[in-house]
Design a protein that fits this description.
- By secondary structure, the protein is mainly α.
- The protein has one domain.
- Helix content is 78%, strand content 2%.
- The protein contains five helices and two strands.
- The protein has a two-stranded antiparallel ribbon with strand order 1-2.
- Helix 2 runs antiparallel to helix 3 and helix 4 packs antiparallel against helix 5.
Length: 175
Amino acid sequence: MARTFWLHKLRERMEENKNKKEHQSLPFIAYHEELPFAHEDPLIGFLHRIIRFAVKALAVLMVLVIIWGIGDVVFVLYTRLSEAPFLLLNINDLLETFGAFLAVLIAIEIFINIRLYLGTNIVPVKLVVATALMAISRKVIILDLDKLTSDYLLGIAAVVLGLGVSYWLITREKN
């Protein structure tokens, strides 16, 4: 009798520790738990499966976009380096090349977001904000300041500030 009591207590403690470790190791928020595989209504269950399939299709399409983007980077480099002056890039060529590189990196980050969404049923908020920061950074790098209004620049500055503060708060809260 006493032995089963202590075994029961030991199992309870092990389960509590396991739950604590799971919650501590996940710096994410739970998200699409409202899309369970099984649902009491067959139509809703079918629609959930369609949505999950759509997310998988987006992942496949994102990989194709990444491959296309790599081809674009190669094409941009080839065309810029093969024009006169041979094997030299001016500042506009460099900015266009950086923009193409960053577009591929952003696509990779979006793919990682999709993969995490599929694999863990959670949205990694820190990664989403970091991806948004990378995207707005790309926009800032390739800006042509001669063609922009001050309102547009203030809007971009506000977005950069908002995302920077968000990222800082997310990483600060985790520590």
